[in-house]
């Protein structure tokens, strides 16, 4: 059984560190990389296909035909990896490798060593974190967002938005059965779904926030100034949907419109979660 790593990609043709991914694939046998092309407008898909053909048994590529956001990309990757039958743990990291493979491997080791945990996620906010680069304005804005997130979750989490998380594959039906309300703030929704599933007391023993040793913010992040300014509004929308409209949102009659996707990889069972 392997650990599947989802790498959401949008317009990464010139940014993707192909050499780093190829090196990781060559030396690691316990991991399966799942790149998800989120409707890129450049030639990202060709770059991903080249990586995939270098080792078809260690790499899969999901091509979402129309851009739908990171939430949909991660969801598509998680559902695919869950359907394979050979994946025990599933995680995701950013395509720019702002969190490196060493830190991600540490997250996996923590999850494997504690059978009670269901998810381990990286943190750039913990006091023990080292090598974290973040500009002053971004740090101030992060503190404001942190207060809003705490209001919504009511959980002692320092950093919900770090793009490095790993969880047990059996958690996929809980986290990814339904679409997310947000394109980018789906991490908060993941914790809300876990809290609903396990309960507000038990969940504290199911999640673990682990300090990262390295994380570097890339200046050409896909999240623009306008998107950043909309974050408080988006967070409040999540709170409203999960608390005020919760019964409607979780209705069994709700229809899910899935993306038009194409999968390049080893044969698997039908996509289902």
Topology:
Elements: E1 2-9, H1 18-27, E2 31-38, H2 44-54, E3 59-64, H3 70-84, E4 87-92, H4 101-113, E5 119-123, E6 132-133, H5 136-153, E7 165-168, H6 172-176, H7 186-198, E8 207-211, E9 215-216, H8 225-243, H9 246-249, E10 261-264
Q: Estimate the global geometry from the Cα principal axes.
A: globular
Question: Class, according to the CATH hierarchy?
Answer: Alpha Beta
Please state the second-level CATH architecture.
Alpha-Beta Complex
Helix content percent band: 25-40%
What are the segments in which pLDDT stays under 50 over at least 5 consecutive residues? 251-255
Average predicted confidence as pLDDT: 88
Return the domain count.
Answer: 1
String of helices and strands: EHEHEHEHEEHEHHEEHHE
In CATH, the topology is named Spore Coat Polysaccharide Biosynthesis Protein SpsA, Chain A
Q: What class, by secondary structure content?
A: alpha/beta
> How many H/I helical runs?
9
Q: Tell me about the biggest sheet? A: 8 strands, mixed
List keywords for this structure.
273 residues; alpha/beta; Spore Coat Polysaccharide Biosynthesis Protein SpsA, Chain A; eight-stranded mixed beta sheet; globular
Structural account:
- By secondary structure, this protein is an alpha/beta fold.
- The chain has one domain: Spore Coat Polysaccharide Biosynthesis Protein SpsA, Chain A (Alpha-Beta Complex).
- Helix content is about 40%, strand content about 20%.
- It contains 9 helices and 10 strands.
- It has helices spanning about 20-25, 45-55, 70-85, 100-115, 135-155, 170-175, 185-200, 225-245, 245-250; strands at about 1-10, 30-40, 60-65, 85-90, 120-125, 130-135, 165-170, 205-210, 215, 260-265.
- The strands form 2 sheets. Strands 8-5-7-4-1-2-3-10 form an 8-stranded mixed β-sheet, with helices on both faces. The protein has a two-stranded parallel ribbon with strand order 6-9.
- α5 (about 135-155) runs parallel beside α8.
- The chain starts with a strand and ends in a 9-residue tail after the last strand.
